[in-house]
């Protein structure tokens, strides 16, 4: 029950979750209504930023898994075929059975989670959080200001913080940044069963790579994005020019109207992400390393991570669980990022070659960190072996540096 101390009310719960994005909502719905170590009911609070610039805009989250997943009822669309188009226009289409590529809109996910959390008794607060820190006697405290500017304080046995922060020192730091249009064309143009993951028929930046990304929602509707992996974001006008070129000169869509937009920045870094930031404070989501450095995908890893945390709490254990991505995957990502950033490999040729030569279901499992070591070796032989080996050899000697100032708000795939 809330208690009073000084000027600000101090709310007390077992678990507090800061941030109502994919990771925060997923963890809240997994643990609300549960029991602490099989004993008494677990009290949970979710703190979200008030409406305004600190609350992320509507966006889409994509991932792959078999049919029958826990969020299938919430999907905006899914695809059983994937396509990657090389810079020369050569396209490779694959069916990664039994996996499907799936898309959820954040608004639908949030609506669903909000209903479940209300029914199960999760306490919801709106506040701008300044600090999440340990208390001297144990537990954690969240401090900030509510929408009216009054001081906000909340104490809990465990705190989970999904607020994105600036990545730590890294050998390589790139940004995946993009802008997308939801388009409605006058004539049928899209193949509803095929998702274009990467179309490299876009002008390439001097450093990094760019590609188009097309998720059909029907014969005349799709999400069309222009994406770059590069050191710095563009201005909105530059993204708009790139999208006009891609939709007109490359795709030849003809007349269409834009019904909605989305834009985001995802860190691609080999920085180390801590599993805990205090005895009772644990980062989750992008802040906890859920974003796969080589691809920018976050949603599926956030589900694995929050599932493991919920299991630890249910068993009465300290929720210090393994990171969202295994060490072997993080090492391979560090090598790839370094090879891309140094220009040793051509990004368009690299990714289109992988998709063409590696069975698609194995490649997707690899990108999720679900392959065995011998499968990783086989995939490695489908890459430019010389440049990749040179990068492996030099990587231990490359110094880590703080990332340059940039916008690091994540908008997870």
From TrEMBL:
Superkingdom classification of source: Bacteria
Pfam families membership: Lycopene_cycl (PF05834)
Protein known as: Lycopene cyclase
Species name: Streptomyces pacificus
């Amino acid at each position: 029950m809330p208690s009073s101390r000084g000027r600000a009310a101090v709310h007390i719960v077992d678990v507090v979750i800061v941030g109502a994005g994919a990771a925060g909502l997923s963890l809240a719905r997994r643990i609300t209504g549960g029991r602490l170590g099989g004993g008494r009911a677990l009290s949970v609070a979710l703190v979200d930023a008030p409406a305004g610039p600190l609350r992320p805009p509507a966006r889409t989250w994509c991932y792959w898994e078999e049919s029958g997943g826990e969020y299938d009822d919430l999907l905006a669309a899914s695809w059983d075929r994937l396509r990657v188009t090389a810079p020369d226009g050569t396209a490779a289409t694959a069916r990664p059975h039994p996996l499907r590529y799936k898309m959820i809109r954040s608004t639908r996910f949030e609506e669903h989670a909000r209903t479940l959390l209300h029914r199960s008794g999760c306490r919801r607060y709106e506040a701008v959080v300044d600090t999440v820190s340990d208390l001297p006697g144990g537990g954690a405290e969240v401090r900030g200001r509510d929408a009216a500017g009054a001081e906000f304080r909340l104490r809990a046995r465990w705190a989970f913080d999904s607020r994105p922060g600036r990545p730590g020192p890294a050998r390589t730091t790139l940004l995946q940044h993009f802008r997308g249009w939801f388009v409605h064309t006058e004539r049928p143009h899209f193949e509803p069963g095929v998702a274009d993951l990467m179309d490299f028929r876009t002008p390439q930046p001097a450093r990094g790579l760019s590609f188009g990304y097309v998720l059909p929602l029907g014969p005349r509707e799709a999400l069309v994005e222009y994406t770059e992996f590069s050191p710095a974001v563009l201005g909105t006008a530059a993204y708009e020019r790139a999208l006009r070129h891609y939709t007109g000169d490359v795709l030849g869509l003809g007349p269409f109207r834009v019904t909605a937009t989305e834009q985001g920045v995802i860190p691609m870094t080999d920085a180390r992400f801590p599993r805990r930031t205090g005895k009772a404070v644990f980062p989750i989501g992008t802040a906890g390393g859920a974003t796969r450095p080589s691809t920018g995908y976050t949603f599926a890893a956030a589900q694995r991570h929050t599932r493991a945390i919920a299991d630890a709490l249910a068993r009465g254990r300290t929720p210090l669980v393994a990171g969202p991505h295994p060490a072997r995957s993080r090492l391979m990502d560090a090598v790839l990022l370094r090879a891309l950033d140094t220009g040793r490999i051509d990004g368009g040729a690299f990714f289109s070659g992988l998709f063409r030569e590696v069975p698609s279901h194995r490649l997707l499992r690899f990108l999720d960190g679900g392959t065995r070591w011998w499968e990783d070796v086989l995939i490695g032989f489908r890459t430019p072996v010389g440049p990749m080996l040179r990068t492996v050899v030099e990587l231990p000697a490359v110094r880590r540096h703080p990332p340059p100032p940039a916008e690091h708000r994540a908008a997870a795939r």
